[in-house]
Amino acid sequence: MLSVVIRRLIVAVPLMGVISFIVFVLSSLAGGSVGQAILGPTASAESVAALNEKLGADRPVLVQYVDWLGHAVTGDLGLSVVSGVPVADTIASRIPVTMSLAVGALLLVIILGVTSGAIAAIRGGITGRLAEVLAVLGRGLPSFWLALIAVLVFGVNLAWLPVSGYVPFADSPSGWIQSLILPVLVLGVSEIALVAVVTRAEMLSAMRSDYVRSLRANGYPWKRIVFKHVAKNAAAPVLTMVSLVFVSLLGGTILMEQIFGMPGLGTLMVSATTKHDLQVIQGLAVFYTAMVVVVFLLTDIASGYLNAKARAR
Amino acid sequence: MSAVIEGAAIKEQSRRAAERGAGFLPRLVRQPIVVACSLVLLVIVLACVFAQWVSPYEPLEQDLQNTAAGPSASHLLGTDQLGRDILSRMLHGGQVTLLGIVQAVAVCAVIGLFLGLTAGTLGGWVETVAMRLCDLLLAVPGLVMLLVILGIYGNNEAAAMITLGVIMAPTLARVVYSATIAVREELYVASARVAGLTSFQIMRRHILAGVTGPALTQISIVAAVACIAEAGIGFLGLGVAPPAPSWGNLVTDAQNVMPISAWMLVPTGGIIAVVTLSLTLLGNGIRDAYMGRSSGSSKAFSWRALAVKVSQAESPAGGGAAPQGQEPILSVKGMTVGLPRGSSEVTIVDDVSFHVAPGEAVAIVGESGCGKSVTISGVLRVLPMGAHVTAASISFKGTELTSLSEREMNAYRGTGIGFISQEPISSLNPAFTVGHQLEEAVRLHRGVGKGQARQIARELMARVRLPEPEAVAKKYPHELSGGMAQRIAIARALAGEPELLIADEPTTALDVSVQCEILDLLRDLREQTGMALILVTHDWGVVAEACDRALVMYAGQVVESADVQSIIAHPAHPYTRALLQSSSVGIAPRQLLPVIAGTVPAPGYWPHGCRFASRCELAEDACRTGPIPMVTLEESSAARCIRTDVDELVRT
Question: Which is nearest to A81 in space by CA: A255, A271, A286?
């Protein structure tokens, strides 16, 4: 088990280094300096050069990168070139918003996706077919469009829920929940069917297996076969799917935060992108990559626990 | 000689590969949904490409009399907040989005195909490096990287879409890689290699044919993702700058006019949805076409469909050997088993009757595909989904099993009738230790607590002669040898103290020396417990070693039933004789084993008359005219043959 974790970490840590380095190199290749980006195209060459020197942006890329990396490992991601606020602080203050969204949607996806997939595998009939149709729709319908429709129907026409803003949990737990319902629903809805389809397929393939035949032939009650023997074998691939879904949900939060006016990492990313705030973009790229790496690591550990064969490998 | 055979084999394989390739396109265009989606996409692409000529207005042309209006004769899809024609803006905006899709797909296809094909065909370190690279790229969060690129390169859509193509490439590479591996391992590539074709020729001829379907499916998914991503970028205001239209920023416009009119949401989001849905459905259609299945075939499966449909037939039609002496523990009369094939049902086991006396060991013998396993599965009612069992009577210790519900039937499985299967390792759940599985069986069948179950499980392991039970109990099935796993499976079947053990080819998957040990074990266990045994096998050595009586099955029917000794000494049915001759039992050493010419007719293709006639030396016209009944020969033996008398003459 420990060796799996270590092997994953051996890949993960360089990955974050590689991503941050790529971002650095790309930004140096982009032409137009940081100073230019901040001051705009109309600024004079002297003022741009002065700003570049002040920011250290006139040094070679590699020097800048090593400098940045040296600070990054201590948790210092530099200052935003636009606002002058430490990037790490800005990111930290916005994590709760994005995580409320992503984790909320993930829970929704797991609970509804696995349940409906299991029902489809056990009972058959319309549920399985429905899940496949919904999976196609979920993949096909743009989430930002669905979000606007949801705002229109539930927020404006029915006026059931707030359509904008985020209430911190500490301020008002009920307000927090209300502010999350719509974005979490829209974010999660397209992924539910995907998880359901995988759950159903994995359970069905376990149900066709030789060991289930032997268990049935030896008189095991069906509930024990399905909810113990089939479930444990189907769990690992479903978990892998869920981890991929989480990565996609993380990306989806960017759009949801933008539409529902929530001050999370996504809105930070979009505004940094519009303002060419490279320090913030750099910090966010590393942070998101770290999130993905952590999720994959947890998935590996859980899969190893569920699947003795994977552990042996 | 061998070169000739090889040449023929290659020709055959190539023909099959060609057939598969030829079948792909017709199967694809036969699906109405594929045709419909292709047409929709074609119309949209053409309309966008020729937007300059097709669209009714200039994209920036304003009609200030009609702002934020719904559909009308002059503006088919209405106007936006500045009175610009939405249809015209959509057609022009589509050029941006479609170009983005093409860029992403092209980059993704080039990288993905290259990595996947080289890794799959070359193998070795290239394979390792390429797949590691894919793992690395898979961990990159897509949308975030797109924004990074846009942040650096400022509203440069081409850069963003090329990045998307790179990010999506590893998934395609993996799909292509596994398809390549699958093709590579197939016989025809192996034989092509033997024939001296170069790697490049192999790649061009076979692998590309096998990879096309999976790759196209994945590419259509990439296109759909690219469409949504491009629109998302436009929606966030990071794509082409307004007032130039794109599908994404049209949705932003729609969001802005939402307070006045919600209409604009419909066409602007709708076009994105239609394109991505069409691409997704097209991908599904391609997948169905190369997998060679019509959509909807696998959808009826569920756990509930595993419950076997059982119906009671009239009195037995065939004259099964009548039980004599003791009351049999199991008596099967006129059992027929059907499995679903397409929308109809095909009979696998046809009107089979037999009985097992208490403590008796009965062998069911025959070639593969004769219905041996399905016969015992029919008795246990553990069959693939959608199966149908019809029988006049299946009675176990006087209880009529056909009239029992699935739940009632379950009370007899495990405790009354135990079961062990052919593949010992895969018959155990890979996710639990074998000790746990054995204890579970004990607790289930004997209703004892944890501690006691543990003790009984250890006793059972000792009884099946497993060395070091403590160490073995902690292992997972894949860590055991086949022989050890089969001992565990036997111990599990013994947990319920069954009076009848059904063993489906219990030694076929094992080494010869282990086979003997397992057979010895089964015989000893039978002596100790007095349980009866049904042993399915195609090995006469096993029959002679372990059984009292044998049923020979051919093409779904019992063709002969007799005591093992007399059947080996005097087989009555020509098929039994041929089977015996092709095995080593009763044949002088060093004599060549003859092989029965021809194959067993498949279920659904059984002839009206004797099913063995086409392979039988003694067949005459009378054999082919109608069904052959079981003929009782002596008091305990019967054969489904009208030429047994001639037989005797021929033999003596």
Answer: A271
Instruction: Tell me if A142 and B269 make a contact (CB, 8 A cut-off).
Output: yes
pLDDT tens for each residue of B271-327: 999 999 999 889 888 887 777 654 444 446 788 888 888 888 776 544 444 555 668
Q: Which of A148, A214, A248, A274 best probes binding to B when mutated, by most B CB atoms within 10 angstroms?
A: A214
- What CATH number does residue B215 fall under? 1.10.3720.10
B142 inside 8 A of chain A by CB: yes
> Which residues from chain A sit within 8 angstroms of residue B269, using beta carbons?
142, 145, 148-149
The answer as to whether B450 is a domain residue is no
Under DSSP, is residue B359 helix (H, G, I), strand (E, B) or coil? Answer: coil
Domains: count for chain B: 1
Q: How confident is the model over A245-292, as pLDDT tens digits?
A: 888 898 889 989 988 989 999 999 888 888 878 788 888 888 888 888
Report the C-alpha gap between A78 and A27 in whole angstroms: 16
Q: Using a CB–CB cutoff of 8 Å, tell me whether B266 touches chain A.
A: no
DSSP type of residue A227 = I
Query: What is the reported pTM?
Result: 0.82
Residues of A in contact with B144 (CB under 8 A): 250-251, 254, 269, 284-285, 288-289
Alpha carbons within 13 angstroms on the beta-carbon side of residue B33 total 16
- What is the domain range of residue B244? 25-61+78-291
B549-584 residue pLDDT tens: 999 999 999 999 999 988 888 888 888 888 888 776
Of A209, A213, A218, the CB nearest to B414: A218
- Over chain B, what is the mean pLDDT? 82
Verify whether the Cβ–Cβ distance B224 to A140 is below 8 Å: yes
Say yes or no for a CB contact (<8 Å) between B269 and A273: no
Q: Does residue B99 sit within a domain? A: yes
Residue B651 placed within a domain:
no
Alpha carbon separation from B650 to A204, B90, B646 (Å, rounded): 54, 88, 6
Q: Which residues contact B2 (CB under 8 A, 6 or more apart)?
A: none
Domain assignment present for residue B338? The answer is: no
The share of chain B scoring above pLDDT 70, in percent, equals 87
Q: Is B195 exposed, middle or buried (0-12, 13-18, 19+ CB in 10 A)?
A: middle
Question: B368 and B538 in contact (C-beta within 8 Å)?
Answer: yes
ipTM confidence score: 0.83
Q: How is residue B55 written in tokens?
A: 């669209």
Q: Could you tell me whether strands B361-365 and B549-554 are parallel, antiparallel, or unpaired per DSSP bridges?
A: parallel
- pLDDT per residue as tens digits for the range B443-499: 999 888 899 999 999 999 998 888 888 899 999 998 999 889 999 999 999 998 999
Identify whether the C-beta of residue A75 lies closer than 8 Å to the C-beta of residue A286: no
Contact predicate A282/A77, CB 8 Å: yes
The pair of structure tokens assigned to B32 is 């109405």
Q: To the nearest whole angstrom, how far is the Cα of B191 from the nearest Cα of chain A?
A: 32
CB within 8 Å: B280 and A140: yes
Task: Match 């998307």 to its residue by tokens.
Answer: B164
In the block, which residue shows the tokens 């792909």? B24
